[in-house]
Every structure is written in structure tokens, then in C-alpha cells.
From TrEMBL:
SUPFAM superfamilies: P-loop containing nucleoside triphosphate hydrolases (SSF52540). It comes from Geotrypetes seraphini. Keywords: GTP-binding, Nucleotide-binding. Residues 122-133 have a biased composition (Acidic residues). Gene3D superfamilies: P-loop containing nucleotide triphosphate hydrolases. Belongs to the small GTPase superfamily. Rab family. It holds the Pfam family Ras. The keyword DNA-binding does not apply. GO terms for molecular function: GTP binding; GTPase activity. This is Rab-like protein 2B isoform X3. The gene is RABL2B. Residues 115-144 are annotated as: Disordered.
Length: 144
């Protein structure tokens, strides 16, 4: 996947299809690639399509356990765990963003703050020049 897809990501949801073993096997490759670009972001593992055969929820999927990642059984078709999964992912992303020790995040944060400071300064300058314009256009009382 192109590096730009990982850019500024604060969480990752890795989904595999319980009906296609290859998608589970491929998680290793996806995970390695993710960590190249985003070494510390929270990552959640999702087993999707459990509606097709609920017995699959009795199985062990060690990939997540091995890496100590949160794991969810999901059905996008009937909605099982979908809201829970996204709510938890958002919570993890927000808390990661607020307390990231990752060098690239800190650089990005500095750049964002710099942009914000610049905007505030420009707005303040605009306010001042409006005021000057206003002052120069106020009709002065004529004192004979
Ligand atoms: N039974 C079932 N089918 C699902 C579920 N989620 C997706 N599908 C079906 O799986 C197929 C692929 O879904 P897409 O939304 O295209 O997902 P994708 O990630 O683009 O999948 P791929 O094209 O297989 O890589 C579609 O026919 C969906 O209807 C699910 O939870 N249960």
C-alpha cells in the first residue's frame, strides 16, 4: 500500500475474512508494513463475516494474541460489534494522538502549531488594518 495511506494515521483496523484463510495469513505482511510507517499507533484486528458461520468464534486466532492486539469478531453484514469496534478505535486513536512519543508525530504537531500561530497572527494583523481603515474613514467632527 502506498505510504501516503499511513500518513498521519492514529489508529489502524486490520480486517480479515474468516472465510478466506489467505486474508488471515496476509495479516503478518500488512502488520510489518504498517510498523515501517507507523511504529506505535494502536492496531486492532478484526475477524469479519462471522455471520457466515458462527462456529468460527470458537476458534483461536493467535495473530492478535501473539502481538497483544485487541481482537474483535465482527459481521459487517448484520452489524455485530461494528459500532463497538469503531468506538474503541476512535478512543485509542484520540488517546494516542494526545500523548504520542513518536518523533514523526511530534514533528507534525510542531508544524500544525506553527500553521495555527501563523493564522492567528495574520488574523490579528487583518483586525488591526481594518481598524486603521475604519479610523481613517470616520468622519471627524468639523470644529470651526
Ligand atoms: N456474509 C458476509 N459478507 C460480507 C460481510 N462483509 C462483507 N461481505 C461481502 O464480502 C464481499 C466483499 O466486500 P467488500 O465490501 O467489497 O470488501 P473488500 O474489502 O473490498 O473485499 P475484497 O474485494 O474481497 O477485498 C461483498 O460481497 C460483501 O457483501 C459480512 O460481514 N458478512
Amino acid at each position: 500500500m502506498h505510504a501516503s495511506y499511513y500518513h498521519k494515521a492514529h489508529a489502524c483496523i486490520m480486517v480479515f475474512d474468516v472465510q478466506r484463510k489467505i486474508t488471515y495469513k496476509n495479516l503478518n505482511t500488512w502488520y510489518q508494513e504498517l510498523r515501517e510507517y507507523r511504529p506505535e499507533i494502536p492496531c486492532i484486528v478484526v475477524a469479519n463475516k462471522i455471520d457466515a458461520d458462527l462456529k468460527v468464534t470458537q476458534k483461536n486466532f493467535n495473530f492478535a494474541k501473539k502481538l497483544n492486539l485487541p481482537f474483535y469478531f465482527v459481521s459487517a453484514a448484520d452489524g455485530t460489534n461494528v459500532v463497538k469496534l469503531f468506538t474503541d478505535a476512535i478512543k485509542l486513536a484520540v488517546s494516542y494522538k494526545q500523548d504520542s512519543q513518536d518523533f514523526m508525530d511530534q514533528v507534525m504537531q510542531e508544524l500544525e502549531n506553527f500553521e495555527l500561530d501563523k493564522k492567528v497572527e495574520e488574523e490579528e494583523e487583518d483586525d488591526l488594518s481594518d481598524k486603521e481603515e475604519y479610523d481613517t474613514h470616520v468622519a471627524k467632527p468639523h470644529i470651526p
